[in-house]
Amino acid sequence: MLEIKNLSFAVDTDNGNKKIIDDVSFTVERDSYVVITGPNGSGKSTLLKLIMGIEKPTAGRIIFDGEDVTGLSITERAEMGMGFAFQQPVRFKGITAKNLIDIAAKKKLSVAEACRYLSAVGLCAADYIRRELDSSLSGGELKRIEIASVIARESKLSLFDEPEAGIDLWSFNSLINVFENMKKRTKGAVIIISHQERILDIADTVIVIEEGKISKMGSKKEILPGIYSQLESCCLLKTAAGD
Amino acid sequence: MDKNYIDVLEKIADIRDFPAGAYNIRSDGKSIGKNDSEKIKIEFKKDVSGLDIYVSPDTVKESVHIPVVIGESGHTETVYNDFHIGDNSEIVIIAGCGIHNCGEHESKHDGIHSFHVGKNCKVKYIEKHYGSGDGKGERVMNPVTKIYLDEGSKLEIETVQIEGIDSTKRETYAKLSDNSTVVIKEKLMTHGNQFASTDFEVDLDGSDCSASLVSRSVAKNNSKQVFFAKMTGNNSCHGHSECDAIIMDNASVKAVPEITANHVDASLIHEAAIGKIAGEQLIKLMTLGMSEAEAEQKIIEGFLK
Predict the structure, then answer these.
(1) Rounded distance, CA B203 to CA B199, Å?
(2) Reported ipTM
């Protein structure tokens, strides 16, 4: 349902042209779970933004549901069934959690319906439904409302940029449940950027990005043992909740 | 009343007919309906155009409507309304002015209001300004509001001007006694070549009194806005003023805060932020299927809610 063909993205810097994404190709099957992982600064977030149309590639094609969407706007891609959860959600003065979920769901939901989406991300819905998405919310609260808005969209393809970032350790387990339940219940493909073992563990496919290129791609059985041994040797990321 | 007048009345006061309770509805300079309640008496001033509104002590859960509608192109007026509110009253006042100008001449309403609020009152004052009509004549409003709060009273003002007023100069002055509170929330949107100036001045004279002045505005096209907020803390008090503006197109917004503390226990804060709509906000709403224009509209709608 999603084909990424020879995708590249470069920016001009003081030291010349720098490739952030370099000739990346992969395919995401319908209803599958893909987790993208890799070191900081390797180009993962940029890759997700290219898929959503937030950044425009310098080369390559993006095919979604059989249609070349490379030249389409963010709005057009959203209308075709893409959803995107930002790593650092934006704040709005005067727009409430309910407003955002209504926009996402494309209809005015009842309070009970909207609450279900907030409860699914571990928020006590009654406390949050009328809250404005302004600076009175903590980063973690905002993050969960962001995830709820993407779930409410029921997209054919949902893109999550580090959903665990900014979520406290105590809420982490419920977040994992969100993604496990999403996989069980909802139809639609999901691409998640994550470093967390338990999220990697629910992946059908794991893609490792390093320096803008795919260094490894395969099933979790093929990829994870290699990643963990690499991580143990460089003491990097194995800090998931439950460890 | 003509349908245009009724539509304007609904915009400014949420009514299409005479409301319950005390009211005076003014249309093109004349009262077209007036009513007193048992505890609220409205009297026409004799020397100038306007009203004296007397609220008896201990009046609770009552409202006063005094909207003004102008439909006659070229009609200009200055109206003086004075509120005398007795101790321990809890009332809501709905004022506001709407100008429907289809003609060539300037229509203007300058509403000069004063509030003399007794002890331990809770008063809410809602003032909406609205203009309509496709005439070339300008729609102008210059409201002046003077507030004198006695001990333990609270006055909350909501002023809204979203559409259709070509030029406005708003002056608001408040003088606060012990334990009194004034809360002013202004929502403003200008477009075209409109001009709006807001001038708040508060003297925090009483001990433990507080003031909160919040202005949220959107300036579009070639419009200009100026926001002055002057607070003087003369006793132990809390004052907070905030100007938060979204600027678009070729508009101009100026915020001039002034806070003066004349007492060691005066705590005064001013915040001002002027900026365009954040690109990330537009992108977020676009990822939820909105066009850029729809996203912009939604953000402004929320901001001015």
Answers:
(1) 13
(2) 0.91
Does A92 contact B299 at a Cβ distance shorter than 8 Å? yes
User: Domain for residue A241, yes or no?
Assistant: no
Q: Which residues in chain A touch residue B216, judged by CB atoms under 8 angstroms apart? A: 93
Work out the minimum CA distance from B280 to partner chain A, whole angstroms.
Answer: 6
Give the range of the structural domain holding residue A33, as residue numbers without chain letter. Answer: 2-234
CA distance B94 to B67: 7
Q: How far is CA A209 from CA A34, A37, B41, in A?
A: 13, 6, 76
Cβ(A140)–Cβ(A146) under 8 Å?
no
Q: Stretch A90-102: mean pLDDT, rounded?
A: 93
For residue range A168-186, list pLDDT tens digits in order: 776 777 778 888 877 776 6
Q: Is A242 part of any domain?
A: no
Q: Can you give the CATH number for the domain in which A33 is found?
A: 3.40.50.300
Q: What is the per-residue pLDDT across A212-226, written as a single tens digit (0 to 9) for each?
A: 999 999 988 888 887
Residue with tokens 């070729």: B250
Number of domains in chain A: 1
Q: Which residues of A touch B217 (CB under 8 A)?
A: none
Q: Model pTM? A: 0.85
Interface mutation vs chain A, best among B243, B284, B298, most A CBs within 10 Å: B284
Predicted local distance difference test score (pLDDT) of residue A238: 47
Residue A162 forms part of a structural domain:
yes
Low-confidence ranges of chain B (pLDDT < 70): none
